[in-house]
Write a structure and sequence with these properties.
By secondary structure, this protein is of the alpha/beta class. The chain folds into two domains: about 80 residues, Rossmann fold (3-Layer(aba) Sandwich); about 130 residues, Rossmann fold (3-Layer(aba) Sandwich), CATH 3.40.50.720. The protein contains ten helices and eleven strands. It has a six-stranded parallel sheet. The structure holds guanine (GUN). The site of guanine has 8 residues, from strand 4. The site of guanine (GUN) has 8 residues, from strand 4.
Amino acid sequence: MKLIDGKKVSQEIKNELKEKIAKAKEVTGKIPGLVTIIVGENPASQIYVKMKNKSCAEIGMYSEKRELSESISEDELLNIIDEYNNDEKINGILVQLPLPKHIDENKVIEKISPLKDVDGFHPVSVGNLVIGKETFLSCTPYGIWELLKRYKIETKGKHVVVVGRSNIVGKPIANIMLQKAEGANSVVTICHSAAPDLSYFTKQADILIAAIGRANFITKEMVKDNVVVIDVGINRIDDPNSEKGYKIVGDVDFDEVAEKSSYITPVPGGVGPMTIAMLLQNTFTSFARKNNLSN
Ligand code: GUN
């Protein structure tokens, strides 16, 4: 069994970007910029956004954090997004989800200019992915693809089974793995909670991508020998032995599934750190396109 070290790879990507940004600054006098917009006080969102802004600073990227009240109206939020659509310093706009219930998430996503859609959630970005045009890819699936490529895992003709059908992970990763491209060109199945027997599908996977959101859901009986396992889950479970009283585990029962795997991502330290690295990559790509630089 080989561990896929997302922490290490994400650091490599950040180092590469730091160099590219320094070079771009010499040539253009400019640096890429990201704005993160957060509405309300969701504690998990606060942590994620703080990590995103901190990572920008680490690599010499400009970033702004816009904190808005839970009670902001939808129209006000849409106007603020438009400000950033027209802001020369900003190459990427990220609105942290979830949003308060009175705000229509789809309207907000559609307001972001596709040129600055570094989350890859805009219907234009999603459509371009589906028809195989170059586009911004949603950061977590993009990170998974990057891990598979950097670990040189054979994907061509392999059966990738995705468990989960979210717009953020399940649907985009299935479409990425379907592309006729390096690190993809796979045969893809998407399955989900409505399947009467999920293990019928998961047992067929050469590469299993678990994005279910249930702690330790995938057990050793559900996979075949030598499977490659990509665990996207981040679940908090009680742990009386830890100081905090809880620990973070994935959607895969790591200890028992690892024994049957050829490669596996740990949680934490697998897919998680890649999400931010790819957000930075997307922001740099947006900047590079605008300034006619190579990516
Ligand atoms: N909430 C959970 N994951 C994400 C993400 O990747 N992007 C945004 N904007 N919000 C999220």
